[in-house]
């Protein structure tokens, strides 16, 4: 009987010590720098978002937030690294809208889109804008569509397969029966470089990354993929004015490996929400063409599921197809 009581006592002491240890660990978070994986090349919407929030988020959490760009395969290379990282709050990721698509178009992903990540906050959206290289002989959407019908195989670039730019281009092709050639890149920045160099003919990309080039007259803005005209481009019509319902914005959200300790998760979610409420942060986003969302984790997961459904429909219709299928 004494041995039974001794085992019960030891078990109780162990449980108390374990709970205390976990509490200390959570209360001590973070005690080292935090990695913020950007699964795209520097210069795009995801990278811009990282550079706007990283310092402020680090200040809220009490440790530096260090940005690491890991581009490739529509964001899935960086996402795979995050998925296999320890869920301790020291590895975070900024997910792009391609997160809703990669599992549908890529073979042998090394993670489960819905189970491998903890979706914390849908931070921002930015409308897509349709632009052409400066010397393409078109000035509006109808002229562009006429040109594309007369020149099948005209090339367009995107920041990756099944990115928002790819989706918008596919929807436009479906609505107007166009045959164009898709050129995917590892992010918006290298795609824009080729657009400026005349290597591709048109593109959809976020207002945030195209605005300086539009303002400089290096590319021509044809239409904006949002429900209303952009305050930054008031003279540019929306896509839906010509093609009703064509609206699929870029979004960027904060995610982590699945299995974060509850207290660590709460700290990250709370700190991120505070950063997104900061007027200076909101001003910087607005100046770059972003709309602040700052959602709950549940709202972020709902958006992921909604966009997954849109992409599934386009794939079924065979208008969103790639070599990676």
UniProtKB/TrEMBL annotation:
Pfam families under this entry? TctC
Q: Which first-to-last residue range defines the signal peptide?
A: 1-26
Listed A to Z, the keywords are: Signal
Q: Which family does it belong to?
A: Belongs to the UPF0065 (bug) family.
Q: What is this protein called?
A: Tripartite tricarboxylate transporter substrate binding protein
Write the lineage as a comma-separated list. Bacteria, Pseudomonadati, Pseudomonadota, Betaproteobacteria, Burkholderiales
């Amino acid at each position: 009987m004494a041995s039974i009581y001794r085992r019960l006592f030891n078990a109780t002491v162990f449980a108390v010590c374990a709970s205390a240890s976990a509490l200390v660990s959570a209360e001590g978070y973070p005690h080292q720098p935090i990695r913020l994986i950007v699964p795209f090349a520097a210069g795009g919407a995801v990278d811009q978002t990282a550079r706007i929030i990283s310092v402020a988020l680090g200040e809220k959490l009490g440790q530096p937030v260090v940005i690491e760009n890991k581009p490739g395969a529509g964001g899935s290379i960086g996402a795979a690294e995050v998925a296999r990282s320890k869920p301790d709050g020291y590895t975070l990721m900024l997910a792009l809208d391609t997160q809703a698509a990669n599992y549908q178009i890529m073979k042998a992903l090394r993670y489960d889109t819905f189970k491998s990540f903890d979706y914390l906050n849908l931070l921002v959206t930015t409308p897509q804008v349709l632009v052409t290289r400066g010397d393409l002989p078109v000035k509006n959407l109808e002229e562009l569509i006429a040109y594309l019908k007369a020149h099948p195989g005209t090339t367009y670039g995107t920041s990756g397969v099944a990115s928002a730019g790819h989706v918008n281009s596919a929807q436009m092709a479906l609505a107007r029966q166009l045959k164009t050639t898709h050129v995917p890149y590892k992010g918006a920045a290298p795609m824009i470089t080729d657009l400026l160099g005349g290597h591709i003919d048109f593109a959809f990309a976020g207002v945030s990354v195209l605005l300086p080039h539009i303002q400089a007259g290096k590319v021509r803005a044809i239409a904006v993929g949002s429900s209303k005209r952009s305050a930054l481009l008031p003279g540019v019509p929306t896509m839906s004015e010509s093609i009703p319902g064509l609206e699929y914005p870029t979004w960027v959200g904060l995610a982590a490996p699945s299995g974060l300790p509850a207290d660590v998760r709460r700290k990250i979610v709370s700190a991120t929400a505070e950063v997104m409420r900061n007027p200076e942060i909101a001003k910087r986003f607005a100046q770059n063409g972003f709309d602040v969302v700052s959602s709950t984790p549940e709202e972020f997961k709902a958006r992921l599921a909604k966009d997954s459904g849109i992409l599934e429909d386009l794939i079924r219709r065979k208008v969103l197809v790639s070599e990676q299928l």
